[in-house]
Each structure stands twice: as C-alpha cells, then as structure tokens.
Specification:
The complex is a heterodimer of chains A (326) and B (273).
Chain A lengths: L3 H24 L7 H9 L6 H32 L12 H14 L4 H24 L6 H25 L2 H12 L9 H14 L3 H7 L3 H6 L4 H23 L5 H13 L3 H25 L8 H21 L2
Helix pairs in contact in A: 1-2, 1-3, 1-13, 2-3, 3-8, 3-11, 3-12, 3-13, 4-5, 4-6, 4-7, 4-11, 5-6, 5-11, 8-11, 12-13, 12-14, 13-14
Chain B lengths: L3 H5 L7 E10 L2 E11 L4 E6 L5 H8 L6 E8 L4 H4 L1 H7 E4 L11 H6 L14 H13 L15 H15 L3 E5 L7 H18 L2 E5 L3 H7 L2 E7 L2 E6 H4 L2 H8 L3 E7 L5 E7 L1
Parallel strand pairs in B: 3-7, 3-8, 5-6, 6-7
Antiparallel strand pairs in B: 1-2, 1-4, 8-9, 10-11
Classes of the chains: A mainly alpha (326), B alpha/beta (273).
Chain lengths: 326, 273
C-alpha cells in the first residue's frame, strides 16, 4: 500500500534523477562540456560554455523534459478515461489535428510562430470536434468516445498524406521531421513548462477519483464520484497536455504509451503515485532520448521520435514478457 | 400488499421508500406504479425471469439511473439528488453484477476503494481503513489473497473481493446485483449468512437480486417478484414465495417442498415439476 510518505520519497528520488538527466543532456554534444562547467555556465553568463548552454542546450533539454512529462501525463489519463491499456495521447486525433495545422503552415511557408499557432489551433479544433460529437446524447461512453476519436484521427491522417503528396520537394523534409517529433528547430520550452506544472496541479485533486474510474463508471458513481465531471475534466486535461506537447515538438511517439505502462509495472496502478511518477519518468526518458538523437549520428541529427521508438519498443516488450512469466 | 403493518408495530421509520415508480427500458415495462418500503434490518429479494429488468430496476433504486424511471425514491427520507453523490455513497453500497477489471491492482487496493466516499479529497486511507478492509477480506475467507492481482482471481474469488469491497464501504443500505454469482454452494450459504447476520445485528438493510427462491425464502424478509409487462408482487417471503406465484413467475410448473432445518425453522424449496 502507498502512503503519502512513500510518495514523497519516490518524488524526491525522481526529482534527483531528473536533475541528473538534464545535467547529462547539457554536458553531452558536439562540444563536450564537463559537469562542473555546466554548473558554472548555468550560474555565470560570462563563462566560456554559457552561450552553448543558454542558447542551445538548455531550451532544448527543458522542452524535451516538459514534453516527455506532458505526453506521459496525457497517456496515463487517456488510459484511465478509455479504460484501455492501449490508449495513448494521440488516439483521439489530437496529434492528427495538430499535424494538419503544422503541415499546412509549412506548406504555405509560414514562419515558426505561424507553425506553432497553426499546430495548436489544429489540436484545439480536433479536441472540440471529438468532444462535441462524442458528447452527442450525453452518454459519453468509452466506445463512442474512442470511435469518434479514431475517426477524426483517420480523417486528419488523410489530410496529412494529401499535404505530403502535394508539398514541394524542399519542404518535405521539414514536414517529415515535424511528424516524427523533433527538438532541433529552435524550440521554446516556456509554454510546455508552464503547461506541465499547471496541468499536473489540476490533475492532483482528481487522483483518487481516477482510481475509482479505473474500476468502471458505475462503480465510481456508486462510490460517490461525479463521473461526468471527472471524465470531462480528464479528457480536457489530457487533450491540453497533448496539444501543448505536439505544438512544441511535433508528434513524438511511444512516450505516452510506453511510460505510463512502465511506471505501472513498477509502482502499481494507484493514480496518486502513478501520475507523478509517469510525469517525471516521461521527462527523463525524453531528455535522454533527445540527447541520443543529437549525438548518435553527429553531426547529423535524428528526429527524437525515432529514438523513443527504438528504445521504447524493445524495453516495453522485454518488461511485458518478464511480468507475464512471473 | 406491503409489510408496513407488521413493522409499524415497532414504530420504526422506513429507511428506504419507493413510491409510484415506473421503469421502462426501450419497449419493456419493468414495473408500473411500484411501491415498497424497507425497514432497518430488513432484507428484500428481487426475483424474476432473465431479461425482465431486475438489474436495471436495482441500479435505478440504487441511484444509478438507467432507462426511463419516474416516481419517488427516498433514501433515509431524502432523494439521491438531495443527498449528493458523495453523501449518498456513504449511505448506500452497490454491488455490480460483473466486475470489469482492465488494469492490475492488488486485492487489498481494490477492497480499500470502498472507503472512497468516507475520505475527503486530500485524505489518504488511514490504518483504520486498512484494518477494515483486511477484516472484510477475513469475513469472506479471502485474507490470504490481499496481495494477489485481481486479474489473476477466479470468478468466485473475484466475487468475494467485490463483496468485501462493499462491506468495507459500510453502507446502511446494500444494493446487490446477484451477490451469489460464481459462488459455490458453501460460499452461497456463507455469504447469505454473513449478510443476514449483519443486517439483523447492525440494523442495516439489503436489496438483492437472487435466482434461487428457496434461498430467498430462507434468508430474506420480503420479496419482489417481477412478472414482466410492468406487473409485480411484493410482500413477505412467507406469503409471496409459493409454488403458484413462482410457477407463474418463471413460466414453468414448480413443486413446493417443506422441511425443517437443523434449528427447526421451516424451509421451503422449489423444484421443477
């Protein structure tokens, strides 16, 4: 059984691990910076490594951490909302909507601000369409929600393929990188950092209600949970987390599916522990994955989505097999 | 036909009242103008053919509306709306017919979820809550299972975990949809013994959907028979449960067998003719 004291201990350990992973990410790259110089560069803007750290690595690392946390949060929430272990942040078409927006922005040659604006608008549009249609008769059943979301995602997929096929050659690469998730194009971490803090705090009071929701809507209702309110809140919180992450870094895959599962295998399915653990684990995972994306085939860079999949798939399959035979 | 005559003698206030309830699912009328009342310590069995609407009626009565329900349902003199979701959950417990687990959880975690309505938003389960959960598991003979994953339990074991959960909730009014589902004969008797001792000793009440009229007669005070097309019959098990009514209820001729149990009380069993 989990106690608040144990939760605090887990969170402290994870916070320490997060700081370590961020320090590693700041130190590794085309220019190696020792951990001591990293610390020096962070506090002293006149030191030799300050420019590389402040201009290049810090924003990118923080963005990766925040997006990893957002995706893991969104994934964990979607799995509870849909009561389906296979749910991920993109299952209800939010990344599809953002993808259509982002690709349209690249297609029309809009600048960076335009791309982010379009991507976020696309994500919001998908959220509203799914919400409106699934809400329909007020029943809000899992099946209805999931089918509506999957259909919206499929529609967005068709639009994305269309944009890719009619896009001029020189813009295709940018589009593909965006679709796979990428931190190499001058990312700004502010939006994502504010997002993960605010959304994390908003989820906290609902955590025990989510534990009830996992055991079915009627059970939760009989145990005093305002099921409709909680489910709509969870949908909106998960959707916003996904939208913010996708706007910041494109559709980075696997974090939102794999991290909640990995943490569930380790800390169990009490949402009061699972959600904070998943947020930190997602952040750490994406920071390390992005570091690899920078250095694996340096000086060229890989889209981080490739690395998350290449690590996430075997690790997940290994753990899945190990738990099955226990 | 009501039980109020017998119970008004001891001047008790009904804990649960249903007045003029109409329930329809699609084109099926489950009950028309249903009236019933439950007193502290009383148990009610709901019987009827498959698909007649027993579960739907029970969940409506438990404040989890389904289908078109109208009429007045009062829990301790107040409607569910007046109680509010959380306060009502401290009053009434509901045992679902099926437990649908999608994720792993330990048995103890599952059972302790019954404490949810009693805790405020930021509160964690206390040692007392945990003790209560362990005690409920003991009562159902599941004490050794507290660390097991619910996904690995057999049907009967999962059912006993669900029963332990509702006991841990400590409601005043138990709504149980087939509490005996998946249970062996010995466990069926144990569970009914447990429920009936509890209701009599702690003055709590229970409504349950049962399939065995003999057990209903042996353990319950009153019975509600649902015949379909909105027709119902409600009264003490002694008067309502007889071969004539039950043959009509199940659409199959039944023979009534009477024999005393070890304590000398009359038992009534029904077998297909």
């Amino acid at each position: 059984m989990i106690t608040p004291q144990r939760l605090l201990l887990v969170v402290l350990c994870l916070a320490l691990a997060s700081v370590t992973s961020i320090a590693i990410s700041l130190s590794v790259g085309s220019v190696e910076i020792s951990l001591l110089d990293v610390m020096l560069g962070l506090v002293d803007p006149t030191s030799s490594s300050a420019v590389v750290i402040h201009e290049l690595r810090l924003p990118r690392t923080l963005a990766a951490f925040a997006c990893g946390g957002l995706l893991a949060l969104a994934g964990a929430l979607m799995q509870v909302l849909l009561r389906n272990p296979l749910a991920d942040p993109y299952i209800l078409g939010i990344s599809g909507g953002a993808g259509v927006g982002a690709l349209a922005a690249i297609f029309f040659g809009l600048g960076f601000a335009g791309l982010n604006g379009f991507a976020f608008a696309g994500a919001l549009l998908a959220i509203l369409v799914v919400f409106g249609l699934a809400h329909g008769d007020g029943s809000w059943t899992q099946t209805r929600l999931i089918l509506t979301g999957v259909m919206v995602a499929a529609g967005c997929g068709a639009l994305i393929t269309m944009l890719l096929s009619i896009a001029p050659e020189e813009r295709l690469r940018g589009m593909l990188f965006w679709l796979m998730g990428d931190f190499s194009q001058g990312v700004n971490p502010t939006f994502a950092l504010i997002g993960i803090v605010v959304l994390g705090l908003l989820v906290a009071p609902l955590a025990r209600d989510l534990n009830m929701l996992v055991r079915g809507n009627d059970n939760a209702k009989a145990l005093g949970v305002s099921v409709n309110f909680v489910r709509i809140s969870v949908y909106l919180l998960a959707s916003m987390a996904t939208a913010i992450s996708v706007t910041t870094a494109g559709s980075v895959g696997f974090v939102g599916l794999v991290i909640p599962h990995l943490t569930r295998m380790i800390v169990g399915n009490d949402q009061r522990v699972l959600i904070p653990t998943a947020i930190f684990a997602g952040g750490i995972f994406l920071v390390l994955a992005d570091t690899l994306a920078r250095v694996l085939i340096a000086p060229q860079q890989l889209p981080v989505g490739v690395v998350t999949a290449l690590i996430g798939v075997p690790v997940f399959l290994y753990l899945l097999n190990r738990t099955r035979y226990q | 036909m009501t039980l109020s005559q017998g119970n008004s003698m001891n001047a008790l206030k009904a804990i649960f009242n249903v007045a003029n309830a109409n329930l329809r699912i699609g084109t099926t009328q489950v009950c028309s103008e249903l009236n019933l009342e439950l007193y502290p310590g009383e148990t009610l069995a709901i019987l009827g053919k498959n698909g007649v609407g027993k579960s739907t009626l029970l969940s409506c009565l438990a404040g989890l509306p389904r289908g078109d329900i109208s009429g007045e349902i009062l829990l301790g003199g107040k409607t569910y709306e007046a109680w509010g979701a959380k306060a009502a959950a401290c009053w009434r417990g509901w045992l679902a017919q099926k437990q649908q687990d999608q994720f792993s959880a330990t048995v103890l975690e599952t059972v302790i979820s019954g404490r949810h309505p009693h805790l405020n938003r930021w509160e964690w389960e206390s040692a007392a809550d945990r003790e209560l959960a362990v005690k409920s598991l003991q009562l159902l003979g599941m004490a050794d299972f507290s660390d097991r994953d619910v996904l690995t339990l057999s049907g009967g074991e999962r059912q006993r975990v669900a029963l332990a959960t509702i006991l841990t909730q400590q409601p005043t009014l138990y709504f149980m949809d087939e509490p005996l589902a998946h249970l062996d004969l010995n466990h069926q008797i144990e569970v009914l013994d447990l429920i009936c001792t509890k209701t009599k000793r702690e003055r709590v009440s229970a409504l349950m959907v049962l399939h065995e009229p003999g057990l209903a007669h042996r353990y319950c005070d009153s019975a509600l028979l649902l015949f379909g097309q909105g027709e119902w019959l409600y009264g003490s098990t002694e008067t309502v449960l007889n071969a004539e009514n039950l043959s009509r209820l199940y659409g199959y001729p039944l023979v009534q067998i009477e024999r005393p149990d070890a304590a000398g009380r009359n038992q009534r069993w029904f077998v297909p003719a």
